Structures are given as C-alpha cells and as structure tokens.
Amino acid sequence: MIRKKLPEAQIGLFLHVAFPSSEVFRCLAVRTELLDGMLGANLIGFQTEEYVHHFLQTCNRLLNVEVMTTGIQLENRFVDVGTFLIGIDPGTIQRRRENPEVLEWLQKIQVVYTGKHLI
What we know:
The protein has 6 helices and 5 strands; from the N terminus they run H-E-H-H-E-H-E-E-E-H-H. The chain has helices spanning 2-5, 22-25, 31-38, 49-63, 90-97, 100-112; strands at residues 12-14, 43-46, 66-68, 71-73, 78-83. The protein is elongated, with a radius of gyration of 22 Å. It starts with a helix and ends in a 7-residue tail after the last helix.
C-alpha cells in the first residue's frame, strides 16, 4: 500500500470508530490484510483505551507480533499506538465564555432574543 510506494513516509492513521475485540475481528475474511495495511502507519490512534487494547490484542493473536502498551514491534520498525481523545474540552469552553468580549455578546443576544428560546 502506501508504505510500499513511500517506505520513508511518516503515516498516521486515526480510527474514528470502535475497534472490535479479537474474537470478532478474527471472523473477517480479510483480517490479515486489514491489519497489515493498518500497520503500514507509523502512528495509529484510537478514541479509547479499550479500542487500543482490542487492536493490540488482535495483532498479537492474529499476526503473532510483539506487542507493548505503547505500540507494536515489527521486524524493521516500531508502530506507535495510542489514545487520542477527540471532542470538546468543557474547561476551555467555560474559560472562553468568561472572556469580556464573549460576555458582551451574550448580553446583546439576551436583549435581542428576550422571551425566545435559542437552540
């Protein structure tokens, strides 16, 4: 895949969906091809620790590769695997709401839309 055409490329992969347990993944006919393709990346990211665990366990069980908590050791390189939360940081949103400019806009909006519900 990409790794074969660009062996020195820095490739990142982030799965925005759940990664199934090894028991489920092993039922796929193309399981090895999928894992080999994913392992072409330098860094593989998941949204939760559970998905990281499923991926590492699946690679260990199906490909018999050396797995560590931080990634997978292949014959000629290491693939980093980690959790990268994607979403809204409530603390940052609250701090921005307290900004004087934002407070001024909130007051203007409240005056303009008095008696109405904004969604």
